[in-house]
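Morning!

This is the sequence you dropped in the shared folder:
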Amino acid sequence: MNEQEQKSILTISLMASFADGEKNENERAEIKRIADALAGEGSINVAALYQDVLLNRVTLADAVHDIATPQGRQLAYEMAVCVCDADDVLSPAETAFLDQLRTALGLSTQQVQAHTEQAEAISASVVMPVAAGAVSSMSDAEIDQAIMNAAILNGALELLPESLATMAIIPLQMKLVYRIGKSHGFELDRGHIKDFLATAGVGLGSQYLEQAGRKLLGGLIGAIGGRMLGGIGKQAVSSGMSFASTYALGYVAKRYYAGNRSLTTAMLRESFNEMLGEAKGLSGRYLPEMQAKARTLNLGNILASVRGA
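The structure's back. Tokens below.
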């Protein structure tokens, strides 16, 4: 994939992030932060793309024009679906945007149907209530092991090229928080968990945009059909960010719920940033385990992991 196609796909992904028309100032600031961060990952000025999208200086037709290959067009649509679905089920505005995008890309309904259904299944699996008694109380050591298992699994997902693999990271993080809260006697719904992640500094749609953008810029995402690009050892871009963010969220959730949810917003965010720094230092040590886990993963068991975690 050439640089122009990468730019076009990132532009479409940014358009998708604004498609619901309801982004508040905090969400806009988070997307801008991600654009600024991605701008440092390579030669593409993602921050400038963000400004073009925000100020309507680029149209959907403009963005689609430079995607020459069928694989690139398919990937552009897949990433847009995941951005729209990452923070909730599709809104009418997002559905309309995706319909316009499919038409502009020249894709048939049949070409996009399977991916759309799978993305919606991943998103909806977090909304569904957990059956009473399905999550048992865990000891301190068991919580620690659950956090490490989730971090390794999400680090492994980060190594896979499929956009759906990247999307699965968010609901797995949410389910980890649910298990930890439940273990400390708290019944949590999706809304509470979303608020907890956002307070810690982890947005849902923006997190997907950041993860997928890093993979795209590093050539690690985009293999239609699920084959890994360049071998599983190619972790050129993300540097274990999904491992680190999952590890940090897990331990912040453990502290928060063990302390009867007494941490302030500032304390939560400070605690998350401290744990994130520690987790980044650990990611290299656990990379072989992430690589080994990634070798066992395919789309079927990714979906099963999300539904059954």
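Headline: Confidence is low (pLDDT under 50) at residues 127-133, 223-234.

More detail when I'm at my desk.
O.
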